[in-house]
Amino acid sequence: MEQKQFGPEVQNTPSSSRRPFKASDHAHDGKQHLLLAASGSVATIKIPNILEALSRHSNLSICLILTKSAANFLVGQSSEQPSVETLRACKNVEDIFFDEDEWVHPWKRGQPILHIELRRWSSMLVIAPLSANTLAKITGGFSDNLLTSVVRAWDTTGETEGTDPVPNSKKRILAAPAMNTAMWRQPVTKNQISTLEEEWGVSVKEGDLRDGWFEVLRPQEKELACGDVGDGAMKDWREIVKVIEKRLHLDD
Protein backbone atom coordinates (compact mmCIF):
# COMPACT_ATOMS: atom_id res chain seq x y z
CA MET A 1 0.00 0.00 0.00
CA GLU A 2 1.32 3.39 -0.92
CA GLN A 3 2.18 5.48 2.11
CA LYS A 4 0.01 8.55 2.50
CA GLN A 5 1.97 11.78 2.28
CA PHE A 6 1.45 14.37 4.99
CA GLY A 7 2.83 17.79 4.12
CA PRO A 8 3.75 20.38 6.76
CA GLU A 9 0.52 22.25 6.11
CA VAL A 10 -1.39 19.14 7.24
CA GLN A 11 0.87 18.15 10.09
CA ASN A 12 0.91 21.60 11.60
CA THR A 13 -2.83 22.08 11.57
CA PRO A 14 -3.95 21.96 15.21
CA SER A 15 -7.14 20.19 16.16
CA SER A 16 -9.68 22.30 18.02
CA SER A 17 -11.18 19.05 19.30
CA ARG A 18 -7.95 18.10 21.09
CA ARG A 19 -8.33 18.08 24.85
CA PRO A 20 -6.12 20.73 26.46
CA PHE A 21 -2.90 19.13 27.74
CA LYS A 22 -2.57 19.19 31.52
CA ALA A 23 0.48 17.92 33.38
CA SER A 24 -1.69 16.98 36.35
CA ASP A 25 -3.49 14.37 34.24
CA HIS A 26 -0.21 12.42 34.06
CA ALA A 27 1.22 13.13 37.50
CA HIS A 28 0.67 9.62 38.87
CA ASP A 29 1.29 7.45 35.82
CA GLY A 30 4.50 6.01 37.32
CA LYS A 31 6.57 6.96 34.28
CA GLN A 32 9.52 9.16 33.42
CA HIS A 33 8.43 11.95 31.08
CA LEU A 34 10.74 12.81 28.20
CA LEU A 35 10.04 15.99 26.28
CA LEU A 36 11.88 15.43 23.00
CA ALA A 37 12.20 18.37 20.62
CA ALA A 38 13.64 18.93 17.17
CA SER A 39 14.48 22.24 15.53
CA GLY A 40 15.32 23.05 11.92
CA SER A 41 18.26 20.81 11.04
CA VAL A 42 18.64 17.87 8.68
CA ALA A 43 19.47 15.79 11.74
CA THR A 44 15.74 15.84 12.54
CA ILE A 45 15.57 12.69 10.41
CA LYS A 46 17.17 10.82 13.33
CA ILE A 47 14.12 11.40 15.54
CA PRO A 48 12.45 8.15 14.35
CA ASN A 49 15.61 6.21 15.32
CA ILE A 50 15.64 7.77 18.78
CA LEU A 51 11.96 7.00 19.32
CA GLU A 52 12.40 3.40 18.17
CA ALA A 53 15.39 2.85 20.45
CA LEU A 54 13.54 4.24 23.46
CA SER A 55 10.41 2.21 22.79
CA ARG A 56 11.76 -0.69 24.86
CA HIS A 57 11.26 1.23 28.10
CA SER A 58 7.79 0.59 29.47
CA ASN A 59 8.31 3.19 32.19
CA LEU A 60 8.87 6.04 29.72
CA SER A 61 6.36 8.45 28.20
CA ILE A 62 7.41 10.81 25.38
CA CYS A 63 5.97 14.07 24.12
CA LEU A 64 7.49 15.40 20.91
CA ILE A 65 7.81 19.06 19.90
CA LEU A 66 8.57 19.87 16.27
CA THR A 67 9.30 23.41 15.18
CA LYS A 68 7.86 24.52 11.86
CA SER A 69 11.25 24.02 10.16
CA ALA A 70 11.83 20.61 11.73
CA ALA A 71 8.46 19.33 10.53
CA ASN A 72 9.58 19.81 6.92
CA PHE A 73 12.05 16.94 7.31
CA LEU A 74 9.33 14.45 8.30
CA VAL A 75 6.65 14.46 5.64
CA GLY A 76 6.93 10.90 4.38
CA GLN A 77 9.74 11.50 1.87
CA SER A 78 11.23 8.02 2.46
CA SER A 79 11.45 5.22 5.01
CA GLU A 80 14.15 7.27 6.72
CA GLN A 81 11.83 10.27 6.82
CA PRO A 82 8.36 8.96 7.70
CA SER A 83 5.34 11.14 8.23
CA VAL A 84 4.61 12.67 11.60
CA GLU A 85 1.45 10.58 11.75
CA THR A 86 3.68 7.49 11.65
CA LEU A 87 5.66 8.81 14.63
CA ARG A 88 2.45 9.41 16.54
CA ALA A 89 1.86 5.66 16.43
CA CYS A 90 5.25 4.84 17.97
CA LYS A 91 5.23 3.10 21.32
CA ASN A 92 5.62 5.46 24.29
CA VAL A 93 4.71 8.56 22.26
CA GLU A 94 2.07 10.38 24.29
CA ASP A 95 1.55 13.25 21.86
CA ILE A 96 3.18 15.49 19.26
CA PHE A 97 2.99 19.27 19.41
CA PHE A 98 3.57 22.10 16.95
CA ASP A 99 3.76 25.85 17.39
CA GLU A 100 0.12 26.23 16.39
CA ASP A 101 -0.99 23.98 19.25
CA GLU A 102 -0.08 26.64 21.82
CA TRP A 103 -3.33 28.55 21.44
CA VAL A 104 -5.76 26.11 19.79
CA HIS A 105 -8.64 27.09 22.03
CA PRO A 106 -9.61 30.71 22.66
CA TRP A 107 -7.90 31.15 26.01
CA LYS A 108 -9.66 32.32 29.15
CA ARG A 109 -8.53 32.59 32.76
CA GLY A 110 -8.04 29.19 34.39
CA GLN A 111 -7.25 27.30 31.20
CA PRO A 112 -3.85 25.57 30.86
CA ILE A 113 -1.02 27.17 28.88
CA LEU A 114 0.76 24.54 26.81
CA HIS A 115 4.41 25.58 27.22
CA ILE A 116 3.96 25.76 31.00
CA GLU A 117 2.13 22.42 31.15
CA LEU A 118 4.84 20.71 29.10
CA ARG A 119 7.49 22.17 31.41
CA ARG A 120 5.60 20.84 34.43
CA TRP A 121 5.02 17.45 32.78
CA SER A 122 8.58 16.78 31.68
CA SER A 123 11.24 14.99 33.67
CA MET A 124 13.79 16.23 31.14
CA LEU A 125 13.88 18.16 27.86
CA VAL A 126 16.10 16.91 25.04
CA ILE A 127 16.59 19.10 21.97
CA ALA A 128 18.02 16.92 19.22
CA PRO A 129 18.85 18.51 16.93
CA LEU A 130 19.49 22.02 18.19
CA SER A 131 19.86 24.22 15.10
CA ALA A 132 22.04 27.32 14.89
CA ASN A 133 18.95 29.51 14.78
CA THR A 134 17.32 27.95 17.84
CA LEU A 135 20.65 28.05 19.68
CA ALA A 136 20.78 31.80 19.06
CA LYS A 137 17.19 32.22 20.21
CA ILE A 138 17.72 30.28 23.44
CA THR A 139 20.89 32.09 24.46
CA GLY A 140 19.31 35.41 23.50
CA GLY A 141 16.23 34.76 25.62
CA PHE A 142 13.75 34.65 22.73
CA SER A 143 10.49 32.74 23.12
CA ASP A 144 8.78 33.06 19.75
CA ASN A 145 7.63 29.48 19.30
CA LEU A 146 6.51 26.56 21.46
CA LEU A 147 9.99 25.09 21.98
CA THR A 148 11.73 28.34 22.91
CA SER A 149 8.81 29.22 25.18
CA VAL A 150 9.30 25.97 27.08
CA VAL A 151 13.02 26.69 27.44
CA ARG A 152 12.41 30.28 28.56
CA ALA A 153 9.88 29.05 31.15
CA TRP A 154 12.22 26.33 32.47
CA ASP A 155 12.54 26.12 36.25
CA THR A 156 16.27 26.84 36.44
CA THR A 157 16.43 26.90 40.25
CA GLY A 158 14.15 24.01 41.16
CA GLU A 159 12.09 26.37 43.30
CA THR A 160 9.12 27.12 41.01
CA GLU A 161 7.86 23.56 41.08
CA GLY A 162 8.59 23.09 44.76
CA THR A 163 11.78 21.00 44.60
CA ASP A 164 14.68 21.86 46.87
CA PRO A 165 17.43 23.89 45.15
CA VAL A 166 20.18 21.38 45.92
CA PRO A 167 22.67 19.73 43.53
CA ASN A 168 21.08 17.28 41.06
CA SER A 169 17.52 18.36 41.97
CA LYS A 170 16.97 20.57 38.93
CA LYS A 171 15.28 19.17 35.86
CA ARG A 172 17.78 19.15 33.05
CA ILE A 173 17.83 20.31 29.44
CA LEU A 174 20.04 18.33 27.07
CA ALA A 175 20.84 19.78 23.66
CA ALA A 176 22.61 18.21 20.69
CA PRO A 177 23.72 21.00 18.32
CA ALA A 178 23.70 20.27 14.59
CA MET A 179 24.82 22.65 11.87
CA ASN A 180 27.26 23.18 9.01
CA THR A 181 30.93 23.11 9.98
CA ALA A 182 31.42 26.80 9.15
CA MET A 183 28.40 27.67 11.27
CA TRP A 184 29.69 25.59 14.18
CA ARG A 185 33.11 27.28 13.99
CA GLN A 186 31.69 30.80 13.94
CA PRO A 187 32.90 32.90 16.91
CA VAL A 188 29.29 33.70 17.80
CA THR A 189 28.54 29.97 18.11
CA LYS A 190 31.51 29.56 20.45
CA ASN A 191 30.13 32.32 22.66
CA GLN A 192 26.64 30.82 22.66
CA ILE A 193 27.90 27.33 23.56
CA SER A 194 30.00 28.90 26.32
CA THR A 195 26.80 30.38 27.77
CA LEU A 196 25.15 26.95 27.80
CA GLU A 197 28.15 25.09 29.19
CA GLU A 198 29.85 27.59 31.49
CA GLU A 199 27.02 29.79 32.71
CA TRP A 200 24.05 27.41 32.61
CA GLY A 201 25.89 24.11 32.49
CA VAL A 202 25.69 21.10 34.76
CA SER A 203 28.74 19.34 36.07
CA VAL A 204 29.66 16.35 33.93
CA LYS A 205 33.27 16.06 35.11
CA GLU A 206 34.59 14.77 38.42
CA GLY A 207 35.60 17.62 40.68
CA ASP A 208 33.48 20.20 38.85
CA LEU A 209 30.91 21.50 41.32
CA ARG A 210 28.81 23.63 38.96
CA ASP A 211 25.10 23.20 39.62
CA GLY A 212 23.39 24.19 36.38
CA TRP A 213 20.55 22.78 34.36
CA PHE A 214 21.90 22.63 30.79
CA GLU A 215 24.00 19.88 29.21
CA VAL A 216 25.46 20.16 25.71
CA LEU A 217 26.03 16.97 23.72
CA ARG A 218 28.72 18.29 21.40
CA PRO A 219 28.71 17.52 17.65
CA GLN A 220 30.79 14.90 15.92
CA GLU A 221 33.02 15.19 12.87
CA LYS A 222 31.83 13.50 9.67
CA GLU A 223 30.56 14.21 6.16
CA LEU A 224 27.54 16.44 6.49
CA ALA A 225 24.37 16.30 4.41
CA CYS A 226 25.56 19.33 2.42
CA GLY A 227 28.74 17.47 1.40
CA ASP A 228 31.15 19.36 3.65
CA VAL A 229 33.38 17.31 5.92
CA GLY A 230 34.07 18.51 9.44
CA ASP A 231 32.61 18.99 12.88
CA GLY A 232 29.06 20.24 13.37
CA ALA A 233 27.13 17.02 12.74
CA MET A 234 24.76 16.03 15.52
CA LYS A 235 26.15 13.55 18.03
CA ASP A 236 25.36 9.99 16.96
CA TRP A 237 21.74 9.28 17.84
CA ARG A 238 22.76 6.04 19.60
CA GLU A 239 24.95 8.02 21.96
CA ILE A 240 22.12 10.48 22.57
CA VAL A 241 19.85 7.58 23.50
CA LYS A 242 22.45 6.26 25.94
CA VAL A 243 22.69 9.65 27.65
CA ILE A 244 18.90 9.89 27.90
CA GLU A 245 18.70 6.43 29.43
CA LYS A 246 21.44 7.25 31.91
CA ARG A 247 20.05 10.63 32.96
CA LEU A 248 16.54 9.26 33.44
CA HIS A 249 17.80 6.02 35.08
CA LEU A 250 15.69 3.99 32.66
CA ASP A 251 17.73 0.82 33.09
CA ASP A 252 17.89 0.94 36.89
Topology:
Elements: H1 8-11, E1 32-38, H2 47-54, E2 60-66, H3 68-71, H4 84-88, E3 93-97, H5 114-121, E4 124-130, H6 132-140, H7 146-152, E5 172-177, H8 181-184, H9 187-199, E6 214-216, E7 220-223, E8 229-233, H10 237-247
Parallel strand pairs: 1-2, 1-4, 2-3, 4-5, 5-6
Antiparallel strand pairs: 7-8
Largest sheet composition: 6 strands, parallel
**Radius of gyration, in angstroms, nearest whole number:** 18 Å
CATH architecture, please? 3-Layer(aba) Sandwich
Q: What is the CATH homology-level superfamily?
A: Flavin prenyltransferase-like
Lateral arrangement of strands in the main beta sheet: 3-2-1-4-5-6
Q: Tell me the domain tally.
A: 1
> Low-confidence segments, ≥5 residues, pLDDT <50?
1-14, 163-168
List the quaternary state of the chains.
Answer: single chain
What is the H/E order? HEHEHHEHEHHEHHEEEH
Sheet-strand content, in percent, reads 15-25%
Helicity, in percent? 25-40%
* CATH fold-level topology: Rossmann fold
Distance between the termini: 41 Å
- The CATH class, by name, is Alpha Beta
Tally the helices. Answer: 10
